[in-house]
Amino acid sequence: MARIILLLLLSGIVQTSFAQKLPNSSKEALGWLEKISIAPRRHNFIGTFIYYADGHMETSRIAHIVDQNGEREKIEVLDGLPRIVFRNNDEMKCYLPESKRIVTEKRWLRKFFPDLLPQSYGSLNDNYYVSKGERERVTGYECQVILLEPRDNLRYGHKFWVDVDTGLVLKAAVVDADHVIEQFAFAQLDVGDITNTELLEPNQSIVASEWHTTNLMASVLKDNELEWQVRDPPAGFKKIIEMKRNIAGKSTPINHIALSDGLATVSIFIEPISEKISSPVPGFYSSRGAINIYVRILADNKITIVGEVPLETVKKIGDSVVKQATNFSIKSLNH
């Protein structure tokens, strides 16, 4: 709480550079990014990984298969309320057994460990200094440590432990200076052919039950088609998509703009303030791990910024959102 209050007091002061300019990343270090990016689309694996942040620990089981039809994956959370995500390429189904609900949507921006880098990673050197660390063992595999040090304080640093044979990330940490904000790590992993494809199918108890399905659809828009725009995004962040989206818990579609620096993503959600509910309270809201949230009110709309970046950055992006006149038309409907 004290950290939030301090940032509110200092919110008008945003430093954007370090005193020392970092050099260009070496070709060898950048080559490891290519291995990391393509590895999940080349290898089959089954394993158990642990997520840790803010004193919270969560264990998940994953099965991942690549074949002529693309990628299929099942991630089952083993702690707390049961959750199971089935992914077929970019189509996702999330099963929530406690409420007998299935939520379907596209994997627009979500990253799932160990698939953490986009296929287009060329801009990372502009925003991060990429370097090699030592070699270390993770769950029995020899790994090369790859460090991504931010070139300013608008983003977090990252540390990847990469299997030297496959390029799969076996451990990943988001760091702020020397402080680990969140971490993923395999506790057990088998890489190779997976003959039992039933591992990626819902079990019979799920199939036999009656579930309520919610389909979250999105309408992708042309560039600058929304009447809302980000006038002055922080250095290195570029708009990657704008759309109208259905969000769980919302009765009507809301505006969504997403920015990225090649690794970190920031989403901007804009919705009219309803007279039926109390007005939202502007300010910062905490979340677990690397995700930070900032809310502001503009022209009777609630603007929510959610990003895996420091609080100063979500505020800078949120305060740059402006409303402008535009002709609205939907380009295409995607499910």
UniProtKB/TrEMBL annotation:
Keywords: Periplasm, Signal. GO terms for molecular function: antisigma factor binding. It comes from the Bacteria. Residues 1-19 form the signal peptide. One of its GO terms (biological process) is regulation of polysaccharide biosynthetic process. The keyword S-adenosyl-L-methionine does not apply. Residues 29-198 form the MucB/RseB N-terminal domain. This is Sigma E regulatory protein, MucB/RseB. It comes from Nitrosomonas cryotolerans ATCC 49181.
